[in-house]
Amino acid sequence: MKVLIREDREKLGREAAAHGASLIRTALRVRGEAAIIVATGASQFATLEALVGSADLDWSRVTVFHLDEYLGLPITHPASFRLYLWDRFLRQLPVPVRAFYAIDGNADPLAETERLGRALAEHRIDVAFVGIGENAHLAFNDPPADFDTDRAFMVVALDEACRQQQLGEGWFATLDDVPRRAITMSVPAIMGSEHIICTVPDERKAQAVAAAVEGPVTEAVPASILQLHPDCQLYLDQPAASRLTGAQAG
Ligand SMILES: O=P(O)(O)OC[C@H]1O[C@](O)(CO)[C@@H](O)[C@@H]1O
């Protein structure tokens, strides 16, 4: 895992997006198509904004997979990840993407995980854009995460720390409003991506970042698995990096 520390979230997002865009460009040149995974949440604001500004990318040849979604939340709810991706990413692009595999959190959950798993199995993922939660989750894989599942998408329960984070970010009015279950891409499925770009701004992530980067690889710290990926770049702002010893920083 390569750690890159930048002074603020805008710079971090711009650099992460530029790196991602160059990987997508390479895939388009070499394979004629590309497939990516996109995440949501406050950690992805700057990255997605910069990514949609990559005007030269031929998005019509890019397939997009959706990382995680709440179960049972209507698409019209302000916290819906599908709404987020439509608003901040898909509708901002100059042309429609080749395909968008949205997670339908209102469909039959098991059938939905199987449908998405079949679709993912047919694609090579060039770039996964992800974040890390305050509880060190990767997608909605809260601790202890399953590092060995053979499922690509799973129904998971959200822990209290995860639900508190969503409340704290202002997506919901009360903790009771935060759904208790979600569909998430699994840890092995994310790790199967050729390249991972993980963007993590904010001081409230500092402890999770330190554990993920400097601690042991353990299911108790889901994002620690990124240490084992052959090409993962972790973009931090200074507050998010504030608890690192500095040994890994580039
Ligand atoms: O951007 P946030 O809200 O800090 O969340 C970080 C990660 O957690 C998820 O939002 C799930 O909560 C992922 O989609 C994202 O990568």
UniProtKB/TrEMBL annotation:
Gene: nagB_1
Top-level enzyme category: hydrolase
Domain of life: Bacteria
GO cellular component entries: cytoplasm
Protein name: Glucosamine-6-phosphate deaminase 1
InterPro entries noted in UniProt: Glc/Gal-6P_isomerase, Glucosamine6P_isomerase, NagB/RpiA_transferase-like
EC number: 3.5.99.6
One Pfam family matching this protein: Glucosamine_iso
GO biological process, one term: N-acetylneuraminate catabolic process
Annotated source species: Mucisphaera calidilacus
MF GO annotations: glucosamine-6-phosphate deaminase activity; identical protein binding
Keyword hit for Lipid metabolism: no
Keyword DNA-binding assigned: no
Domain Glucosamine/galactosamine-6-phosphate isomerase: 8-227
